[in-house]
Write a structure and sequence with these properties.
- With 425 residues, chain A is mainly beta.
- Helices cover 3% and strands 37% of the residues of chain A.
- Chain A contains two helices and 31 strands.
- Chain A has helices spanning 36-45, 260-263; strands at 8-12, 49-52, 57-60, 66-72, 77-82, 87-92, 108-111, 120-125, 132-136, 142-146, 158-161, 166-172, 177-182, 187-192, 203-205, 215-221, 226-231, 234-235, 273-274, 278-283, 294-297, 306-312, 317-322, 327-332, 343-346, 355-361, 366-371, 376-381, 392-395, 413-415, 420-424.
- In chain A, the strands form eight sheets. Chain A has a four-stranded antiparallel beta sheet, with no helix packed on it. In chain A, strands 8-9-10-11 form a four-stranded antiparallel beta sheet, with no helix packed on it.
- Chain A starts with 7 loop residues before the first strand and ends with a strand.
- Chain B is mainly β.
- Chain B has a five-stranded mixed beta sheet, with no helix packed on it. A four-stranded antiparallel beta sheet of chain B has the order 1-2-3-4, with no helix packed on it.
- Strand 3 (57-60) of chain A pairs antiparallel with strand 20 (269-274) of chain B.
């Protein structure tokens, strides 16, 4: 998916040609087509005609697409989730791609078949150890943890098996608790920070009263013991015994999560609805079907497919990557109801393109954005507003390289009238 | 109103609309064909009367009889094609006789008056107007078709070896994405039939190998052949198109009749295959 909110992309079949990578010719002789005689012969004999044929065209993006960002302020590094190539890339914090350069090479990359990284969409860096926590979304139900020194196609230090559709991760370093959001059925699952394998979570926030709805980003305010959760809006109700908590058996140290193939059994038919996108606020110790203490929601908020969120605890400001609107919204952390943002970073000079990740670096007084739509990460002054150019840009592809932003393409349709492909992600 | 986990989207050339199932909000939305940006759907079927539970894979459109079929794992809901709001279905195919276990893809053939449904029981062929606890007229699976039959069982009754075999997928694969070609062929990307040994390096449609290591590709069956079956049976696929590289894009598929192409979508990529034999 266009991680992880799904958006419909329309590709003009003619326009695709600019992106096409023509496949190589078949490497061995085989049946390249089926003649009418072969077809008839096969039909007569009730045999199958086997055709080996290379694709005429392939549309794919060979470049990284950034879905989440975190700054390691102690080591002066920026880590980015590259969801397109299933890897984590780490750059120097002060890297800045020159205008004439094709791209900036990362300092290190964690990626490859051994890493188990897939459709990675949520990132956290331990500020003390530099350990990297990364959430696999959609195609793999686990979260992996990497020590700062790891790179290449290696094995993670730890793997936490999670419910399907994990999205974002945050850690309360004081309480040593790890918070993981689950898109749908929506939940916040809280583990011990050092959880491993099938370890059981400490608590789960879920249920109709929570108003969680296709959950995405999460931010923690450890001083005020508040949790901020981003909701995109679509949701439906679980049956009475249908939450993720049903998988947690009393007294058991481990849990086997219900596989996605069976989750539908615990939904109430006809209960679905689409709520306006929101930021819901809870006590950090909230558990079960607990209502939020506040909700930022409504037309004035400008929330539109919000993805990740970052809290400036010093100034008590919330930064939201607002994907469809191509902007970064800033709210007061104390806002409630239909509140307008106090700042909006938006415009052609910002370099923002379908932002998914956002991180407030309070030590260096900067704001870092992961742009899913243009192969870049852009850095601004912490209080940037309006159509402000970035202080620095890390580009992972030549400038203006198109980004198809493909995720896990679950269905396709062809518009015969317009010669276009409809591609949900 | 579009959400994640969309597994069926269909353009309807007869009405210049496209229909999208939203499993998170339990809705089926219809947009005008040229919809762009944050444009609202022109119709939404959603609400407690609809009985929609998890419509994540199958939408079937019947422009002749003006109906829309929605597959919901263990039942099928049939609405008027132009239904909108919290409406009750016209018909519900549901019950133990239906063999609708983990139903996914669906195709309506209004010419032959049948409904084809991909399930864990195999490919089920129903009369188009089937209602209630209806038996399918045919259940297609086996080595010739490459279609898997894997009815639900209690794993406690199986040996560990049987459980692992079952989890690997057993013989053949399930049908998920299905389309009807202009020639009246049923097309799916996940079918499998026996392939000559020298061509058996073909991986699964996800490019990572089938669950059981067997070849995969774009598979095409004749619905007329299926119509000859009564009860359980197996029919050979007409064609299996695979890639010489051994990898193909994933399990989503569209037909482009203008260019006689089959388009596959998967993880981060689209592939277009020429397949004039089926158009």
């Amino acid at each position: 998916m266009l991680r992880k909110g799904v958006r419909l992309k329309v590709l003009c079949a003619a326009g695709i040609l600019a992106l096409l990578v023509l496949s190589a010719a078949p490497p061995f002789a085989a049946l390249r087509g089926a003649t009418p005689q072969q077809q008839q012969a096969a039909a007569d004999a009730k045999k199958t005609v086997h055709i080996v044929r290379a694709p005429l065209r392939t549309v794919e993006d060979p470049n990284p697409s950034f879905s989440s960002v975190a700054v390691d302020v102690a080591r002066n590094e920026i880590a980015l989730e590259d969801e397109n190539l299933d890897q984590i890339v780490v750059y120097g914090r002060l890297d800045n791609t020159p205008a004439q350069a094709a791209l900036t090479e990362p300092k290190r990359v964690i990626g490859g078949s051994k890493t188990k990284i897939s459709e990675n969409c949520g990132l956290y860096i331990d500020p003390f150890s530099g350990d990297i926590y990364t959430v696999n979304g959609d195609t793999a139900n686990y979260l992996t943890v990497w020590s700062h020194e790891q790179k290449g196609n290696s094995v993670p230090d730890r793997t936490i098996n999670t419910p399907h559709r994990g999205f974002a991760v945050a850690v309360d370093e004081q309480a040593k608790e790890l918070f993981l959001t689950i898109e749908s059925p929506p939940a916040v699952v809280v583990y011990p920070k050092l959880a491993n394998g099938n370890d059981v979570p400490l608590r789960i926030l879920e249920g109709d009263k929570t108003q969680l709805a296709e959950v995405h980003g999460i931010a923690l305010d450890t001083k005020n013991q508040l949790m901020y959760v981003v909701n995109q809006g679509p949701t439906s109700s679980n049956t009475d015994d249908g939450g993720w908590a049903r998988d947690v058996k009393p007294g058991s140290p481990t849990v086997e999560w219900t596989p996605d193939s069976d989750r539908w059994k615990y939904l109430v038919p006809g209960s679905g609805k689409v709520m306006p996108p929101s930021i819901t606020v809870y006590s950090m110790k909230a558990s079960g079907d607990t209502a939020p203490v506040r909700i930022i929601q409504g037309s004035l908020t400008q929330l539109d497919w919000p993805v990740h969120i970052s809290l400036d605890a010093d100034r008590q400001e919330l930064y939201v990557a607002n994907s469809v609107a191509d902007d970064i919204l800033v709210f007061r952390a104390t806002d409630n109801g239909n509140a307008a943002p106090i700042r909006v970073l938006k415009g052609p000079h910002t370099g923002i393109g379908k932002p998914h990740g956002v991180f407030v670096d309070t030590k260096n007084n900067e704001l870092v954005v992961a742009n899913f739509g243009n192969h870049s990460s852009t850095v601004y002054a912490r209080d940037a507003n309006g159509d402000t150019p970035p202080l620095r840009t890390i580009r992972a592809a030549p400038a203006n390289t198109p980004a198809p932003m493909f995720g896990n393409i679950g269905t396709l349709s062809y518009d015969t009238k317009r010669d276009q492909l409809l591609v949900p992600n | 109103m579009i959400s994640r986990a969309d597994h069926d989207l269909q353009y309807n050339p007869a009405t210049d609309e496209f229909v999208n199932a939203n499993p998170e909000a339990q809705s089926v939305m219809t947009f005008r064909g040229g919809a762009n940006g944050e444009e609202a759907p022109i119709r939404v079927i959603q609400g407690p009367h609809t009985q929609i539970g998890f419509p994540n894979h199958g939408i079937g459109l019947d422009n002749i009889h003006n109906e829309i079929f929605i597959v919901d794992k263990e039942y099928i809901l049939v609405f008027p094609r132009t239904a909108t709001g919290d409406v009750a279905p016209l018909r519900v195919i549901r019950g133990p006789n239906t063999l609708l276990f983990n139903a996914r893809g669906v195709v309506v053939d209004p010419v032959r008056n049948v409904l084809l449904v991909g399930t864990d029981s195999g490919l089920l062929v129903f009369d188009r107007t089937a209602n209630g606890d209806a038996k399918p007229r045919a259940i297609i699976s086996g080595p010739l078709s490459g279609i898997r039959s894997r009815p639900p069982v209690n794993e406690k009754d199986l040996t560990e070896e049987q459980i692992q075999e079952r989890r690997r997928g057993g013989q053949g694969v399930a049908i998920q994405n299905m389309r009807l070609s202009p020639k009246g062929y049923l097309v799916s990307v996940q079918g499998r039939v026996a392939v000559p040994q020298d061509q058996s390096t073909v991986a699964g449609p996800d490019g990572k190998g089938n669950a059981n290591g067997l070849p995969g590709g774009i598979t095409v069956w004749s619905i007329d052949d299926m119509m000859k079956i009564s009860g359980k049976g197996d029919v050979p696929a007409l064609f299996v198109l695979s890639s010489p590289t051994g990898k193909m894009a994933g399990g989503s598929m569209a037909l482009n009749p203008n260019n006689k192409e089959v388009i596959l979508g998967g993880l981060h990529s689209l592939e277009m295959y020429s397949f004039p034999e089926i158009f």
